[in-house]
Amino acid sequence: MDLQSAIRSFLSTLDVEKSASSHTTLTYETALSQFCQYLAEFASPLPEVSEITEADIRPFLGWLHDKGLGKTSIRLKLAAVRSFFRFLLRSGVIDRNPAGMLASPKTARPLPSFINVHEAERLWEMFDITTVKGLRDRALCELLYGSGLRIHEALALNLGQIDVAARTVRVTGKGAKQRIVPLTAETITAIEQYQARRAELRPKDDERAVFLGDRGGRLTSSSAWRIVRRALGPVTEARRKSPHVLRHSFATHLLDNGADLSAVSDMLGHSSLSTTQIYTHVSVERLKDAYRRAHPRSTTS
User: Exposed e or buried b for every residue in 54-77, given b needs 16+ CB within 10 A?
Assistant: First the structure.
């Protein structure tokens, strides 16, 4: 089968059998049109689909890069080509997928959002601690920032998991793995002040959740997100204002002040140091930025 006929058959299948959106079909059509354009620059006439090998497809990635496409766009183009040949393989037109073993270019991992120390200091002014809800909201944010918990870990806490005397909290993380995380003095104070008035939220007798919602049940994730977003709104211009920003800030501020990477990894509940190392990149980038802004020769070649 010639390449153009095969592409038309594939796109028709997307429209009719797969009920793909017009956007998806157009994305695949554009990618395969570019693939044909690439092949036409090196072969005339275009090869039959059965003649195309992995060696023919691999330079397509470099060709796209030379056209100015970024890694994310190249990954999408390769995904379209893979799907095309996978369709031909299922249809019996070819006996192997020449694009099946091609590795996609790795995209750069975005640096996590965080608030700076000055913003963190202002955060605690955002809570009305004359009310039980304000005390609860401050205690939750103190825990997220002071101990780096994931939001679902904080919301899953039950009475008894916080050891005030030892200033630690027992957390159940991903994969049901448990870890002991230290608490700051401010977190202890905030939790004690909240728990002294927790009954005002009228929990049921068997409700063991540390953080209660306005109706006395366990605080939900969506409510917690609203609490954090509302508190962060006035204190930071960071684009993201989520519970994870407080966790990111916890790790970033510890590493900025010389904390051991493996200790931070343990507190975060990461299974690998490589996951935690993203925060060292944040610190390095901040140092570079400070250097560029402050050193008189930083912009000279």
Answer: eebbbebbebbeeeebeeeebeeb
